[in-house]
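Hey, can you fold this one?
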Amino acid sequence: MSWVDNHIRGPGFLVILAIALLPSGYVMGQTPAASHSMAEADQSPATASRSVIAQWMIEAMENAPEVLTARAALRSAEADVDSARYAAYPQLALGISGSNGQSPSSGNPADSVDSRVSASLTYTVWDFGRTRSKKEAAALGRESALLRLEQSREQFLRRLLVAYIEVSRFELLEEVGQSTRAALEELERLEARRVHLGGAGITDGTLASSRLALSMNKVLQFEQSLQDARLRLEALMGKPLQMPDLPLLQVPSSWTAQVPVDFDPVDASATLKAQRLNVDQVRADLDADQGGVYPAVALTYTKRYEMPGSYSARSTVGVQVSVDSSTALEATARVDRSASRLETEVQKLAMLEREARQGIRSGVQRQKLLGQRVRLLSSAAGDSVKVVDARRKLNEAGRETTLALLDAQVEANNTFIDWVQAIYDTRVGEVELASDTGRLAPQEGQALGMLQALFNGEDYRAEVRRRLAAMNRSPVAGGGHRVAPTALAQLPSFRLGLTVSQEQVLAIARRPGARESQFFRLEVKPFEVSGGSW
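Sure. Predicted structure:
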């Protein structure tokens, strides 16, 4: 019998048939979840990178030391709630004691053994609200710990987003510096050739080299700042970022545009909510300490059983009132300490509310001024591009010095740097304002959607890069691009020699009241000069 007959007639045929009838998502051991993962992998690189970065941010936020510390504090607060609840239960005490010794009777020198088991049940019926206040304080402490956890996540996310924006800031600043350095290097080489050929003084060449050095110093500063920003971001993320160009981050305008003048930060800030709960918790602790000054009243139930002899004492029920001078004095000191702590927490809440209101008003005003700065510097950057382009044309025509072109290039570079700084100051201000108004507090299960919304803005670097390209290689009429000065210097060129002598005077014209005019015959003799000799 052949191999086919064995498998078709045996159970293997059923397995083959089942595999053939499975949906396409199950082929080759692929589950629907795996199909969903492959569908995510088929997304565009930009969308996939944004989702990956958002997921990394969530993982970093949940595993941050400050967030884990807040979680531990929450577990401690929950234990305090259980402890306060257990204190209100009836208290059961079980005691076992035993002793052995010699009988004092001379006629009975045998050893005797005495053991005793006693059980008591105590229930406090009145303690002037001490137990109730402790339970209330513990519950408020747990709510405060929950808000502290939310606050720690929000503050970490704020630092993480600012660090992310700083990386993008110095990436763009480095591009500006590198672009300007390349342009200044061309002008410096051109000026060095002119000095070598005697067309310019040594001072001009030295000045060009000095300005190039200053430009390179800025580039090195931006590179160092970029490295520091990347290290800071990687430390917060907990992993190295291998992406060469991180996706842009921008807070949606709807998060910061609608901030009313009378906005109350107490209802939006997790910090203020937690501090308000702290005040209520300390007030409950003060009530508990005040109740501890007075004696508590408790009902007791006691039962004792003794061996040998199997003696069982009668069960006793009584009322217990404990009064101790040292306990009363200690309770009075605790009341004074709790009262001072309550006053401190109330003043701290007032200070935080004042700072929060001031911060929100300052943030709103700062964003308005930053918007004006961005528009002003954008216009100035456009004008500086036009100035560089005009001076480059004059320089190529021989009607402007290279140093004047250098001045225009350096000024344009400074304008672009200020423009980029204003753009990113605006982005950082948006993050801070969103945090102050409670927009960055991630709700349970909504952190991923909130973070992905931060990556849906427009590319605010595109206009900067476009103007940089226009400044470094400006188009001319008729299409195409102008050739750089160094490229012109490599081309074959011609010089015109002019010879003027007194013997070639053609005529002298004199008019009353005017200067004497002489007319000469000029001889023009072109001769070729090898390329690169300018």
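The first strand starts at residue 91 and ends at 102. Let me know if you want another pass with a different chain boundary.
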